[in-house]
């Protein structure tokens, strides 16, 4: 069918009048940026365009709840961005409740008010983006949400909400109320680690001299693996990596705040 007929089919099944259907379909096609495509055969559309037609077909019915299953799967970055902007616009302007399944972590953080982590059929944690990505409840969730630095340690000192954690003979400070002697995981997001060529004065409680062991470029970002008595992964911009001339064997200082260390019981 044509794009127009695709979007209109639900309204026709509901017995809407022809002029009302035309008004609603034209409005929704303009919203999704496909008004000039209404006479096109739907089979001739690109993946991103077809996905916008699918959204329009659902939205024209003014649903109370919209279910989205991987709405940007297999789409190119430009099409993905258009779909994400559309979803965000609908949520804001129409106040439509949406439940979306996605494997894209950044998409979840960007679009969702509330997130649930499903692992092997179990809902293992729910909360807002900060709860999920910065305070995972267990090691399984931490791995899933990209908390690459998950280190086994033992609390060796705990005073006024600040804990000292022994990790392989090295001590790091963290905000935690866990008691002395407790076996824990110390978790740090890679983007919370700052790299520099010399030790600098800052409010961060943790600073370690380290050696770069591996570098992987990820578009505009750079994943840097370092050894500072224990293994750490840092995520810096490509520009920063080039300015620091980061390469395997390079000596750097790794710095991170006590508030950037999430403590979980083992």
Helices and strands, in order, run as HHHEHEHEEHHEEEEEEEEHEE
What is the CATH architecture assignment of the domain at 3-113? 3-Layer(aba) Sandwich
Helix/strand/pairing category: alpha+beta
Largest sheet: 5 strands, antiparallel
If helices are DSSP runs of H or I spanning 4 or more residues, what is the number of helices? 8
Estimate the helix proportion, in percent.
25-40%
The count of DSSP E runs of length 2 or more, i.e. the number of strands, is 14
CATH superfamily of the domain at 3-113: P-loop containing nucleotide triphosphate hydrolases
Report how far the terminal alpha carbons are from each other.
Answer: 57 Å
* Assembly of the depicted chains: single chain
CATH topology heading of the domain at 3-113: Rossmann fold
Descriptors:
8 helices; 266 residues; alpha+beta; five-stranded antiparallel beta sheet; elongated; OB fold (Dihydrolipoamide Acetyltransferase, E2P); Rossmann fold; 30% helix; 14 strands
Structural account:
Among the domains are: 111 residues, 3-Layer(aba) Sandwich (Rossmann fold), CATH 3.40.50.300; 70 residues, RNA polymerase II/Efflux pump adaptor protein, barrel-sandwich hybrid domain (OB fold (Dihydrolipoamide Acetyltransferase, E2P)), CATH 2.40.50. With 266 residues, it is of the alpha+beta class. Strand 3 and strand 4 form a beta hairpin. A five-stranded antiparallel sheet has the order 7-6-5-8-14. Strands 9-13-10-11-12 form a five-stranded antiparallel sheet. A two-stranded parallel ribbon has the order 1-2. The termini are far apart. The protein contains eight helices and 14 strands. It is elongated and about 75 Å long. Helix 1 runs parallel beside helix 3. The model has no long low-confidence stretch (mean pLDDT 92).
């Amino acid at each position: 069918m044509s794009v127009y007929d695709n979007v209109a089919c639900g309204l026709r099944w509901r017995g809407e009048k022809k002029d009302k259907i035309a008004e609603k379909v034209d409005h929704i096609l303009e919203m999704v940026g496909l008004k000039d495509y209404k006479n096109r055969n739907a089979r001739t559309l690109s993946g991103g365009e077809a996905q916008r037609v699918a959204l329009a077909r659902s939205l024209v019915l003014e649903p109370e709840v919209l279910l989205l299953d991987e709405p940007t799967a297999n789409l190119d970055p430009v099409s993905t961005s258009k779909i994400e902007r559309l979803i965000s616009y609908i949520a804001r302007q129409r106040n439509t409740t949406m439940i979306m399944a996605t494997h894209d972590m950044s998409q979840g953080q960007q679009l969702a008010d509330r997130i649930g982590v499903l692992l092997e059929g179990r809902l293992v944690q729910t909360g807002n983006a900060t709860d999920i990505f910065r305070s995972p409840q267990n090691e399984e969730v931490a791995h899933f949400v990209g908390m690459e630095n998950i280190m086994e340690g033992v609390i060796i000192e705990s005073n006024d909400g600040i804990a000292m954690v022994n990790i392989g003979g090295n001590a790091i400070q963290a905000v935690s109320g866990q008691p002395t002697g407790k076996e824990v995981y110390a978790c740090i997001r890679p983007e919370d680690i700052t790299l520099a060529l010399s030790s600098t004065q800052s409010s961060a409680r943790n600073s370690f001299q380290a050696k770069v062991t591996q570098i992987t470029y990820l578009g505009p970002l750079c994943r840097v693996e370092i050894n500072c008595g224990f293994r750490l992964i840092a995520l810096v911009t490509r520009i920063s990596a080039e300015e620091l001339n980061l390469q395997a064997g390079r000596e750097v200082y790794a710095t991170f705040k006590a508030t950037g260390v999430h403590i979980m019981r083992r």
